[in-house]
Write the structure tokens for this entry.
Amino acid sequence: MCLKTVGEAKTMKDYRVVRKYDILKINGKERLIRPVDEKNVVLYYVKIEELFDILHETHSAIGHGGRNHMMAELKNKYCNITNETVMVYLKLCVQCQKKAVHRGAEKLLYRRRTNREVQQIYQKPGINAYLMSKRIEWAGHVWRSNGIRKKALEGKINGKRPRGRPRQRWIDRVVKEDIDKCAQGLTLEDSVDRDSWTKVVEAAKVLQGQ
Ligand SMILES: [Zn+2]
């Protein structure tokens, strides 16, 4: 990336951007990376549409590893995946969540109980409603990530969209359905209002019969 565009005044923000971002061309495709340091390690910025798949593949590859294991893996290759993001993802993993519920239940009760019993004991909504609320929470979190990072994530770094049909994003596929179930008429854009979005997340938690 360079600052040589003619006829445009550069702001502090422009210089800040240049320090943080660089573009690497691989097979004619441009990838946003962190400027390479002395160690010569290339760290990629992950776009929204790639984020879930990358987390999912990493999580599976390390045999449902926890947050620390995940972060250790991801940091070798990517520079914009946060602890918080990984935590939200882990709460979406059905297998890990079931394990966690069982662990808790077994510790406390010394025998296995039915899902319904566990639910009553913990005063928690069913696992599906819980996971749905976590997906909605996740989508809002990603959506609210502001400024250039969000633009980068959306693939709008140069005001250009990639040619061809835009890849269907995970959040579009899954979360739209979720939102329709508990807050009809609302869209992801509404998540910029954090307080209202928290209410949607809460509504999803208490939604029964999923
Ligand atoms: Zn898992």
About this structure: The CA atoms of residues 12 and 18 lie 10 Å apart.
